[in-house]
Amino acid sequence: MPFAADAVAAQQVQDRLKSLQQLVHEIEKKRIQSEQGINTLQKYAQDDKSGQSSQKLKSLYKTAISQAEQEEEVIRKALQKITEIRNIKNERRIQARIASNKESIRRGPWMKMLSSSAQTLPLYVSKIGEKPPPLCGAVPADPNYVAKIGDMVAALVKVSETNGENWILAEVVSYNHGTSKYEVDDILKEQNQKGRHILNRRQVIPLPLMRADPETDPQALFSQGTLVLGLFPQTTCFYKALVNKPPPTHMDEYELLFEDSTYPEGYSPPHYVAQRYVIAFKQKTKQSTS
Predict the structure, then answer these.
(1) Which domain holds residue 92?
(2) Pairing relation of β-strands 254-259 and 164-176?
(3) Tens of pLDDT along 244-276?
């Protein structure tokens, strides 16, 4: 049956790729139309310096706006297809893991995958008057939100009797609504039962599902001087840090200063961490039930 499931998933991806290809061609057509509309508007505005033909100018403005909105609509459809492809592949990965059909991945490739995952996290593009939704950038999840199977989370787990608890990068395996407890896997020990933990909801923080655009939604990012939990580079552990600089563009990362007593200032030199791996600071619980 796993082969049948793989075939179905592959066909679903191919169907969406075909649709995406058509949308890309449509985007190009809409872009050309939009550019032509803007050029016509600019030329007319320059030639009509007296401003006597205001009605014609208004008509050209309306046409240019309509063409831009049509282009935006097609782009959003294309982005939706990309999201659907990501979801299909992730769902198949989860099914393969459940069926114990997944190869063990070494630390190096995992680090590259985590970096790629952060870079390709969907970008939230707001419309006029819209507010960024929960789990977009720094916007927290709703109080009753439950992370889905396969979602990445920060999980507070007991490392050892001497080292106490640490926030680690983990993946949701299941959630028990009766006990309000998560079952999560340490991201580096996905095939190892020793890397599995049972945790209360307060010990699990969902990671952002979308990136925020600093140019359109700066309020959805942690501001300079904010205390956060950041994934320390080349590790799978979250540590307390101070935001030195928020991302200037949607392609950039946070500049964080990690708490470190070995430095005179109490913080490390700047490190760069992707939006996906920067979350609100949360104190450790007194004891873990994992």
Answers:
(1) 2-102
(2) unpaired
(3) 999 999 999 999 999 999 999 899 999 999 999
In a domain, 130, yes or no: no
Helix axes 2-47, 54-98, angle to 10 degrees: 160
Mind giving me the DSSP string for 72-90? HHHHHHHHHHHHHHHHHHH
Distance separating alpha carbons of residues 237 and 154, to the nearest angstrom: 8
The tens digit of pLDDT for each residue in 60-90 reads: 888 998 999 899 889 888 888 888 888 887 7
Domain assignment of residue 107, yes or no: no
Kindly state whether residues 183 and 263 are assigned to the same domain. Answer: no
Q: Return the number of other C-beta atoms located less than 10 Å from residue 34's C-beta.
A: 20
Q: What is the C-alpha separation between 246 and 134, in angstroms, rounded?
A: 19
Residue recorded with tokens 């920067």: 278
CA dist., res. 195 & res. 215, Å (int): 40
Q: What is the pTM of this model?
A: 0.76
